[in-house]
Amino acid sequence: MASIDSAVARGSRVYADRPGFAARHAKTLASTRSALFSLFVATALVFAVELIVRQSLTDTLSYVLDPTRPALTTIGIFFLILLAVDGIFGREHKSAVVIAPLALLPAVICQQKQVFLSDPLYPTDFLFGRQIMELMPVLVKDRPWTAVGIAVGLVATVVAIALLLRFAWRTFPKLTTRERVARLAFALPLLVAFWNIMDYNQFSWIRDRLKVIPIMWDQTENYKHNGFALAFAINLPMANVSAPAGYMADAIDRIPVKPLPAGTSHRGKPDVIVLMSESFWDPTRLPNVKLSPDPMPTIREMQSGNVFSPEFGGMTANVEFEALTGFSNAFLPYGSIPYQQYIRNPIPSLATFFRGEGYVSRAIHPFQSWFWNRTAVYKAFGFDMFKSEENMPPMQKRGIFASDDSLTNEIIRQADAMDDPFFFFAVTLQGHGPYEANRYANNTIKVEGDLPEADRQVLATYAQGIKEADDSLKKLMDWAKNRDRETVIVLFGDHLPPLNTVYTSTGFMKGVTAERKGSKEQMKAQHETPLVVWSNKTGPKKNVGTISPAFLSYQILKQSGYEHPYYTGFLGKVYDQYRVVDRYMLIRKNGKEVAEWSRQPKVPALLRDYRFLQHDMMFGDRFSTDRFFKSHADLFASVETH
Fold it and tell me: Which Pfam families has this protein been placed in (predicted)?
């Protein structure tokens, strides 16, 4: 043993005596320490991001330590990014100063989004960052101290990052050209290879081994399993909508077209007013509380049925998309927003249909025209005009939003100025949350029940808004009753309101946001909003039941006396079998539910054809134009050059 030790010592002295050995040995140790520190930073960042998003130390530890989840993969990706950024900047660990805020800020935004809505942060959310800023005064008023904390935190973060970057540039060790190339040569190919296996539309054996499992049909589980960073990255390609299997001209040609009956122009051309009422819902559905008097007597008397909203607490544009086009969000990537991502070219809609019948088609909304990209979308839908806050007379406010009463007066004013038949699509604003206490000087709806005072005030504010929306509908109906021309009025709520802890305090829901999946009874309770379909000549249409917003076009045209190859023909066939077409659930005409239908090996032929037609007109070659949308075709060119 002594002889071995002696030999090792002699060998060490030999190598130590060689020129440059000590320097190379020190350099190797320094590089190892640098790599280990970058690995530590990557681990700390992943842990911090998950802790912020999950708001639970136990859940975060479970994610990081669970071998069936891709925490180690996420750490590895962060490690590679840090190495690559160091190689680009040429300074050790300067990447940590740059990457940390880029990782932590989206996590904070995600956590805040989940407070108000049920979904995590998607890449597409940044497409409408401007409207988030526009609504910031409302959010600040609702949670002032949180807002102050965020503002102070942002300022402190910006200052800290600036100082750290300056400090890093002056003091962090400079990398040699060889070290920079080595980092980039190691990190970039691996990052590119990883990105190439992230397309969730294609199976990847390597991705599966890395425990990255895209769960696109359930984004809550997607973020829970994969973690915020990977789930966010998985959703980046969602704007790329691939054609459904089997889509081609022959497939469209095989879809039968229902022959139109002779004389489809009705007994006359009725005026049509559709009101999408912001966050309109029946608050008397809340258990363990009593509201008196009834805040919605008119709508209760005239109610035709309910709309099954695909959203909760927000995302109004997705409901509006279905109502105006007759297409379904169920056939689009989860988390996508058609108004932001997909409506770039003319699309058939109720506006183009009515214009083809000689109507004036007008959209009305008492807010700024850029919100939800409505200016461009309404142009693509074929509306003659969009009357927004910028080009309407000043309106009376209730709280900080235009009142339903003043919007009703404006609708009446515009209608009275019309000679030609008209189609108005109006989106109200007064019902928008949050529902701060004392928004109204006088709440006329009494709230009884065992509720925390803060929740009682929120519910009182919301109920007062419902009463005023109901009063406004009555005013519009009273006006219509005195008209000679038939007037069809349709009102529906876009989604349930964001009442926050009112839901949990009353026992209506387990959480403050609705579930995305559940039993039919649970889903209907958390997604149904009132629907009124009424004519000044025939009164309310009853027994419509609960329908998806996509079937509103069918109801509107039927009530107005029109037939159409798609809106009453094809959609009528779908409506004959299904009343709700949701991403997670179908509800048949007989009331039976079909859960997880989209994940079945074979989709029903009728729904397959429904998806074909939607893809064809939104993304495809419009093979179906002549057979299903012929009356719209002449308007496409005018919309494109309008």
Answer: Sulfatase (PF00884)
Residue 527 near residue 309, CB atoms below 8 Å:
yes
- In degrees and rounded to multiples of 5, residue 442 shows phi and psi of -140, 105
In angstroms, the CA 421 to CA 31 distance is 77
Half-sphere exposure of 538 (CA within 13 A, CB side): 15
Q: Which candidate, 304, 631, 632, places its Cα nearest to that of 488?
A: 304
**Can you tell me the distance from the alpha carbon of 105 to that of 197, in angstroms, rounded to the nearest whole number?**
26
Which residues are CB-contacts of 252 (< 8 A; sequence separation ≥ 6)? 612, 613, 616, 623, 624, 627
CB-count exposure of residue 197 (10 Å: 0-12, 13-18, 19+):
middle
pLDDT one-digit tens code per residue, 257-268: 887 765 455 568
Check if the beta carbon of residue 555 is closer than 8 Å to that of residue 541.
yes
What burial class does residue 600 get, using C-beta atoms within 10 Å of its C-beta: 0-12 exposed, 13-18 middle, 19+ buried? exposed
Provide CB contacts within 8 A for 341, sequence distance 6+.
124, 127, 238, 239
Q: What is the DSSP letter of 566?
A: I
What average pLDDT does this structure show over 363-386?
A: 91
Q: Mean pLDDT score of the chain, rounded to an integer?
A: 87
- To the nearest 10°, report the CA torsion of 471, 475, 481, 485: -120
- Do residues 81 and 93 touch, judged by C-beta distance below 8 A? no
Q: Which of 234, 230, 235, 231 is nearest to 77 (CA)?
A: 230
Q: Where are the beta strands (DSSP E) in 561-642?
A: 578-581, 585-588, 593-595
Pairing of strands 446-449, 422-427: unpaired
% residues pLDDT > 70 (the chain): 88
Instruction: Supply the pLDDT for residue 497.
Output: 94
**Does residue 270 have a cis bond before it (omega within 30 degrees)?**
no
The amino acid at 531: L
Question: What 3-state class would DSSP assign to 540?
Answer: strand
CA angle 593, 576, 377 (to 5 degrees): 90
| 3-class secondary structure, 354 | helix
Is the predicted pLDDT of residue 592 greater than 80, yes or no? Answer: yes
Structure-block tokens of residue 75: 């750490």
How many whole angstroms separate alpha carbon 642 and alpha carbon 638? 6
Please state, in angstroms and rounded to a whole number, the distance separating the CA atoms of residues 219 and 103.
20
Two structure tokens written together for 426: 């109006």
pLDDT at residue 243, rounded to an integer: 87
Contact 307, 496 (CB under 8 A): no
Q: What number is the average pLDDT over the span 82-103?
A: 87
Length of the chain: 642
Per-residue model confidence as pLDDT tens digits over 189-218: 999 998 888 776 567 889 989 999 887 656
Cα separation, 418 vs 387, whole angstroms: 15
| pLDDT per residue as tens digits for the range 160-192 | 777 777 776 777 788 889 889 999 999 999 999
Whole-prediction pTM = 0.73
The answer to whether 224 touches 121, Cβ cutoff 8 Å, is no
Tell me the three-class secondary structure of 170-189, residue by residue.
HHCCECCHHHHHHHHHHHHH
Percent of the residues in the chain that have a pLDDT greater than 90, as a whole number: 58
